[in-house]
Amino acid sequence: MRNRRDNNTPPHAQASSAPAAGQQRSDLATIKTLLPYLWAYKIRVLLAISLLVGAKLALVGVPLVLKKLVDSMTVTASHPAAMVVLPVSLIIAYGALRLSTTIFTELREFIFAKVTQRAVRTIALKVFRHLHSLSLRFHLNRQTGGVTRDIERGTRAVSSLVSYALFSIVPTLLEITLVLIYLSTHYDKWFSVITFVALSTYIVFTISVTEWRTHFRRTMNELDSKASTKAIDSLLNYETVKYFGNEEYEAQRYDQGLKNYETAAVKSQSSLSLLNTGQSSIIATAVTLILWRATLGVMDGSMTIGDLVLVNSFMLQLYVPLNFLGVLYREIKQSLADMEKLFSLLDQHQEIADPAGAKPLAITHQQGGEIVFSHVDFSYETKRQILFDVDFTIPAGTTTAVVGHSGSGKSTLSRLLFRFYDIQGGTIRIDGQDLRHVTQSSVRAAIGIVPQDTVLFNDTIEYNIGYGKPGATKEEIIAVAKAAYIHDFIESLPDGYQSMVGERGLKLSGGEKQRVAIARTLLKNPAILIFDEATSALDSRSEQMIQAQLKEIARSRTSLVIAHRLSTIVDAHQILVMDKGRIIERGTHQELLNLQGAYAQMWDRQQSGQTENSDGNNDANSDVDSATLMAAGV
């Protein structure tokens, strides 16, 4: 039957990551990438192919039995026994062949189902793992909606490609071959010539027009991606849209993307109509010529009525797969295009990789590792250097604070310590081990961070705290929640620890999210702690309580504190003052005050209240507000 619609996705999403933009894999390369995943179950594949051949042989045999049945009806009266026995046996054979075709097909699907689904699962998991192995640079540049759409459509395309190519195209070609062989060996050459010419014309026409239509599909994908990106960015920034009253502006931007998609979709559908019309014309002409030749054969006595029925049955059987061949080819091309996006993600270069033979980081000090930044130079982009000859040591078990104006490079230190990026000059060592020579997983396992901007999973509070140590007991989670002074607030919620925090934790206030982050990090129990403005969103009372707790926790660990409020780091063993990527002052709080330099000026300004950080002032009633939201199910 004819598929009158192009199997296009709605105008929602798809975009490859920015680094992969413009790269195109050949169809052959895509297929070569897919084959190993299928061949992992070679016995099932070979058995499925055998069943496929059996099904087609049975299907081709059906018209042959039908011919015999029709011819048997012309048996003369001198053979009365044959009038009953022969037709009955042929009818039984006809039914058996029909049934065996279905049985072979269903067995093939049953046997091959595990191969297809396991391939989809393996590829999706591999891509997911690979995305997590890519550098922070990739994830800062990516478009989340597009990447997830690439994975979704690509994995679906794997199943589609296998189904279309192996179980539709190959059987169709096999059936056509068998029919051509039979026609050429049993009938006038014109039957096979007409069939072959029609088939060749059909294939050439279909491929030519489909290739012409391919750029419409690619254009639709790109416009689909842009529309999706705008929609997802707008929804993720819901509050910002509301703050500025730009709902209509966002709707217009999204509608422009949909309008462009609509234009491309109309062109695609118009070209599809042209393709369908051409295919139908070729098939109709071939069927007419075949039946005309068969009718002439019956009239001149060279063919029987059974031969006419046989030829007609062959053409009817070929009509569906021949007509469907164009649809299949388009679907395969579409699947290959979608898989191209998926496998392009696997082609993304893993910027930060463990060297061969890398060993786990070994923390030798009982009070946390010694951290050494030795003449470190770093830049996110070659034209803009961020750090210049940064050199300092954090002895094991001590606390070092870093202060400075925004953009001075403070937070970059924590990113480099986690090895989200590789430095361009110098070395970073923990307990004498260069971070580039040990495994990344062991480095990150040894470090815990409480970031300034805490992002939570859209799950329960218990899940988000327990994320610091998967498998932690409820007692352990409650203990760290108490240490972070958030247990009482959680207990006041209707669902307690099972309360959902919402997308990115938006049901919680900034201070509550930070306390969840603190509890999560405490549960991880790392040897090295990083506090990046860890209490910036807390009110003064909560900050004082948690600061006292953090100081107690940091006594047995190495700590790096990135701070803006200088009052929170006066007890640090060492304070580094950064400006434009360089350390301009270092010492204890009192030593830096005595220098009467940049730190002393910052201290005087904050003490006089000129630049007092008021981030936590709006959080005084945060517990009540968030509890109200939780109770309302917002």
Overall CATH architecture of the largest domain: Up-down Bundle
**Total domain count:** 2
Strand order of the largest sheet: 6-7-8-3-9-10
- Low-pLDDT parts are 1-23, 610-634
- Kindly state the percentage of residues in helix: 55-70%
- Strand percentage lies at 5-15%
Shape: elongated
CATH topology of the largest domain: ABC transporter transmembrane region fold
Let me know the CATH homologous superfamily of the largest domain: ABC transporter type 1, transmembrane domain
Work out the helix count: 19
Element-by-element helix/strand order: HHHHHHHHHEEEHEEHEHHHHEHEEEHHH
CATH C-level name of the largest domain: Mainly Alpha
- The average pLDDT value, as a whole number, equals 76
> What profile does the largest beta sheet have?
6 strands, mixed
* Secondary-structure class: alpha/beta
- Span between N and C termini? 49 Å
Topology, number of strands: 10
The value of Rg in angstroms is 35 Å
Task: Produce the secondary structure layout.
Blueprint: H1 27-39, H2 42-72, H3 80-133, H4 136-141, H5 144-186, H6 189-236, H7 238-244, H8 247-299, H9 305-346, E1 371-381, E2 384-394, E3 399-404, H10 410-417, E4 425-430, E5 433-434, H11 440-446, E6 447-450, H12 461-466, H13 474-483, H14 487-492, H15 510-524, E7 528-532, H16 540-554, E8 558-562, E9 574-579, E10 582-587, H17 589-595, H18 598-607, H19 622-632
Parallel strand pairs: 3-8, 3-9, 6-7, 7-8
Antiparallel strand pairs: 1-2, 1-4, 4-5, 9-10
Helix pairs in contact: 1-9, 2-3, 2-5, 2-9, 3-5, 3-9, 5-6, 5-9, 6-8, 6-9, 8-9, 13-15
